[in-house]
Amino acid sequence: MFFSLNHSFAQKTVPINLSQNLNDNGWVSLQSNTLLFIDSTSKLLLQNIDNKSFKPLNTFTFQQLSTEYYRYNFWLKFTVNNPTDSIINALFTTDVHKSVDVFRKVGKNYTKLQSTNQTLRPNERPYKFDESYLPLKFEPKQSYELLVKVTEHPQLYFKLTPKLVSYATEYEDKIRAFDDEYIYLVHDGIYISVLLFVATYMFIMFFVERKRYYLYYGFYLLFLVLFAFWAVEHSPYIQLIFSHLPVLKFSANNNTYLLITNIFYYLFHYEFLDLPKIAPRFSRVLVFYIKVLVGLLIIDTFINFVLQNYSLGGLLWIATQPIIAIFGIYGTIQLYSLKGPFIRYIQIGSTVLLFGALIGFLEQLLQIKPSDNVLMRLAPSFGLNYAVLVEIFCFSMALAYKTWLSQRNRNRLIRSIKESELRTLRSQINPHFIFNSLNSIKAYILKDRQLEASEYLTDFSTLMRAILQQSKEKFITLSEELETVLLYVKLENLRFENGFTFNFSIDESIDTDEILIPPMLFQPYLENAIKHGLMSKNDDRILNLSIKQKTKEELLITIDDNGIGREQASLQRKNTLKHQSMGMSINDERVQLLGVTNDLHISIKIIDKKSSKGISEGTNVEINLPI
Q: What is the pLDDT, as a whole number, of residue 3?
């Protein structure tokens, strides 16, 4: 390509003479022919810019790690001549910036030729394939004194590289970029797909298992996916989520997503490892750190989205990175002090992720990653992304191991429940009770008391059927329970020839058809009171059953007898004590299992009543039943 330089002084730029060979030779750098003026107020009007003091662009060094450039307007001035007899079409670019406006000076006035910005969608761009290019047309035998206004998004590294590019060269550049950068597209596609799949699985597991650590890990992966989309959508060809929400694409920076992912990452550790139990001190430190991260996220959001003070946001990013890195090292070291069946997977995954995060941070800080990408402007950090995939694999193994352990314990618990239910059924159908009941029926028949025998047999069969039916249910209504136990007490009283007085009372406000309780909850205590308390007493035997509304959420069931008491009964009937202890222990075991499996925490208190002289006056059983 051919172009010539003519020397000029002061504010005059050195013109660039284009030739027809531009389309064949590719591009023309304007770097050494461009003057620069920086408006630090960003308030100067176009008509006042021409009088300002411009400096050669190639003599100016932009400060790196600067957080102030987004506040400025950068003005470029250069002159382009078309000495040929033909129209020359070219694409102008200064690299990727927030917005670029090109003006032509005609006389003393400026006319806008083209304008572009990063928020434009392909059908809105002057050059639909890339928002960083502006198509310009240079008429034959014409000189173009151009003024370019450039604004920038907040970023740590800034550069201005003005040049004119032929359409053919830009097309070839895109073809070359696809060949060079397709690995980035494939990598990001696989990476995002894996994260989305595992995140979806975690949310499903949360709704199935109702374990919060699935929810935390799912949100951790979801925000990693959003962070990946945020990086991918800086490509001029990908329009998915953030291109429709420019405020999230340009106001939010990677610090926003970094803080959110770290919050959910450590919440997962806290919940999954059950740190308050196995590492109380580390747990307290971690809770404090999570609160710090939440505070930093609130500050970051307020600065970037409300105040839109991106320089302060940049400083916050610089301050946040070492905090996260230092605690990442500390937290990983603390993990190696923990012990457990699945801790090893968490330790390996966290260690690999820590090294990957440090690699990603250094790549960004030292600009190790390619910065001249065309298709994928933000090149992925292979070290970080592969570390995330390894961490997902290790954490998934830990989750699977813990789920398997939980399932095994759950199976054992179910087996214990089944065994407990069987033992409960056996204890309820007491062979001695059946034998004695049948003997009572036989006695009625032998004494020619057929009516009593028929009534007794009817009640007895009704009771047996009720016990067998209710033994299949986890819960029955209070009315069904009362019907069964009252029938049981009636049969026992008949068998002992009305040998005791039974009193029953219940609050009128209690709706027995709406309240659910475990079946045959009262029977073991009533049986114990009758057989081992009252029947060992000579006379004046009294058994009381009362049900009261203790609170809106709790019933108080009281079983009270004036028998000989547990101590005296154990001395008189040692053989019976074995069955008594078995029935009571089975019921206690069933109550404990209900607390584990159904979150139904029933409180049972047995009180030995004694006189002021220490003489036993019976037993009182208090059952506090949540409703």
A: 33
In angstroms, the CA 549 to CA 174 distance is: 79
Give the strand pairing for 476-477 and 35-39: unpaired
Positive/negative CA dihedral, 117, 123, 127, 129 = positive
DSSP character at residue 93:
E
> Residue 103 pLDDT more than 50?
yes
Task: Looking at mean pLDDT, say which of 61-65, 349-353, 415-419, 551-555 comes out highest.
Answer: 349-353
Q: Return the top range by mean pLDDT from 393-397, 435-439, 496-500.
A: 393-397
> 333 versus 614: which is more confidently predicted?
333
3 state DSSP class of 609: strand
Partnered with residue 616 across adjacent β-strands are 610
Span 571-607, pLDDT tens digits: 765 544 444 445 666 677 777 777 766 667 888 888 8
Cβ(272)–Cβ(206) below 8 Å? no
- Report the predicted TM-score, pTM, of the whole model to 2 decimal places: 0.64
Report residue 295 as tokens. Answer: 């505070």
Query: Which residues are CB-contacts of 489 (< 8 A; sequence separation ≥ 6)?
Result: 502, 526, 530, 543, 545
The Cα 357–Cα 388 span in angstroms is: 9
SS3 330: helix
CB 293 within 8 A of CB 262: yes
Show Cβ contacts of residue 258 under 8 Å, excluding neighbours closer than 6 positions: 227, 320, 324
Segment (H or E) for 619? strand 616-626
Least confident of 75-89, 402-416, 600-614: 402-416
Residue with tokens 């009625």: 444
- For 491, the token pair is 């049969």
CA angle 35, 41, 47 (to 5 degrees): 60
- Hey, what long-range contacts does 29-32 have (CB within 8 A, 24 or more apart)? 29/161, 29/162, 29/163, 30/78, 30/162, 30/163, 30/164, 31/57, 31/58, 31/161, 31/162, 31/163, 32/56, 32/57, 32/58
